Amino acid sequence: MLKLLGLKELIESISQERNLPRLAVQSAIREALLKGYERYRRAQNLDRKQFDEDYFDNFEVELDIEDEGFRVVSTKTIVEEVTNSDHQIAVKDVIKEVEEFGDDAAQLVGQEVVVDVTPDKKEFGRMAAMQTKQVLSQKLRDQQRQLVQEEFQDLEGTVLQTRVLRFERQSVIMAVTSGFGQPEVEAELPKREQLPNDNYRIGANFRVYLKKVSRGQQRGPQLLVSRADAGLVVYLFANEVPEIEDEVVRIVAVAREANPPSSYVGPRTKIAVDTLDRDVDPVGACIGARGSRIQVVVNELRGEKIDVIRWSPDPATYIANALSPARVDDVRLMDPETRQTHVLVAEDQLSLAIGKEGQNVRLAARLTGWKIDIKDKAKYDFEGEDAKFSDVRAQHAAELDELSELEELQKQQNQQLNSQEFETTQDEEEFESENQKIY
Questions:
Q1: pTM of structure
Q2: Which of 68, 153, 318, 377 satisfies CB 3.0 to 4.6 Å to 7 for a cystine?
Q3: What is the rounded average pLDDT of the residues 244-266?
Q4: Dist CA 109 CA 91 (whole Å)
């Protein structure tokens, strides 16, 4: 056995420092020592033969925690004549240890035996020790990443409480935990996932949306969190509105612009809600008495504007509601196939409907899934727009008809080819049958 003084304290300190179970640390140390032994054997390779990838699969490292040491053992096959000392052992070298076989050595050939092949401390070498240290560091990182993945993979798409630790480039590194009593893990909040009104000072607490748990081996935090994702808004409303938690009110759609393209426009969210209970006002339930419920959400999002609107199965009504707070006079569904609509408003409602730098109409379009054009009702040319879209619809219908004809033609050609193949096969079978009769 090769002594490792301080092994017990080493395992304990690594376990506490890296928040890893002792068994995981022991496993990492065994793997590292085995890699160190491989380095030692490669250095001893005087014949310069090539080692296969699985050459050292029959070697293992055993740790002795109490005596603070380790041994390397190898499973070898008993043979008459040794051609590979790493995988084989001569029968004459083991017959003395196996007394029950007596003089009948032939019974031992082909069986396997575990042999202690631990090198001396001097033989192990400085390079092998360095290899062991490097591999141990890598294995410990791998163990940590695996534990984080197992701990948080079921929490993707949920909201967690975090604390700001430090800043790296434009990202905020946060401490997050999966539950009470669990160790803290680092998470990254990139620039694109931050809110412009947040003050990310060290030690500040934030609720974040767990967007992704990385499963690769790249450096840095495995957890990607967000303050800009729409899922955070959904969680906050579900947390504040009991009717959503009880599934009396449901959130149908959310459109959020947490980082507008211009600094002159603030973050804004539109959320569409609905209910099957006639006695419940879904919008009122989300807003609360004197705006108490929605104000909690707004405060958490640092003053972000939030429009709660009523969802409707009627596209025209839904689009009109989505353009809130603007007052809509008429919604004309010009082309349901391509989902294009004209929304008519009074002149004094134009800027409100469009929003600052187009934000209101942009969010309404994303919320409803329709392409929305805001028009001044007083200047709108009903006949001209109807004629233009009539031509568009006719052209679209003609394209669909042409596509349908092409598909039908292709179908007929395929049927003809299949029929020809069938007839050819039948002819070949009849020809073969005739030949069999002749012969």
A1: 0.66
A2: 68
A3: 92
A4: 7
Sign of CA dihedral 252, 258, 260, 266: positive
Tokens 């596509």 belong to which residue?
Answer: 403
Do residues 267 and 257 make contact, with C-beta atoms less than 8 angstroms apart?
A: yes
Any idea of the CA torsion for 139, 142, 148, 150, to the nearest 10 degrees? -100
Q: Give the Cα separation of 2 and 186 in Å (integer).
A: 37
Dump pLDDT digits (tens) for 56-101.
888 888 888 888 788 888 888 888 888 888 888 888 777 766 555 5
Q: How far apart are CA 318 and CA 334, in angstroms?
A: 15
Looking at residue 169, its pLDDT comes to: 86
Please state whether the peptide bond connecting residue 336 to the residue before it is cis, i.e. omega within 30 degrees of 0.
no
Report the DSSP pairing between strands 185-189 and 223-226.
parallel
Can you name the residues that pair with 168 across neighbouring β-strands?
Answer: 171
Contact 397, 389 (CB under 8 A): no
Residue 44 is inside which H or E element, if any? none
Pairing of strands 88-90, 69-79: parallel
CA distances from 404 to 335, 339, 407, 408, 413 (A): 20, 21, 5, 6, 14
DSSP E strand stretches across 190-242: 205-213, 223-226
278, two tokens? 């006639």
Q: How far apart are CA 374 and CA 262, in angstroms?
A: 21
> Cα 108 to the chain's mean position, in Å?
54
Beta-strand relationship, 171-176 and 330-335: unpaired
* Residue 226 near residue 211, CB atoms below 8 Å: yes
Please state, in angstroms and rounded to a whole number, the distance separating the CA atoms of residues 405 and 351: 46
Cα dihedral 391→394→395→396 (10° resolution)? 120
Q: Extract the tokens encoding 227.
A: 């303050």
- Residues 75, 116 contacting (CB under 8 angstroms): no
438 pLDDT band (50/70/90 cuts)?
Answer: very low
Q: Spell out the alpha helix ranges (H) of 303-381.
A: 315-322, 350-354, 359-368
- How many angstroms separate the Cα of 203 from the Cα of each of 99, 167, 235, 262? 70, 12, 23, 29
**Per-residue pLDDT reduced to its tens digit, 125-169:** 565 667 677 777 777 777 777 777 777 888 888 999 999 999 998
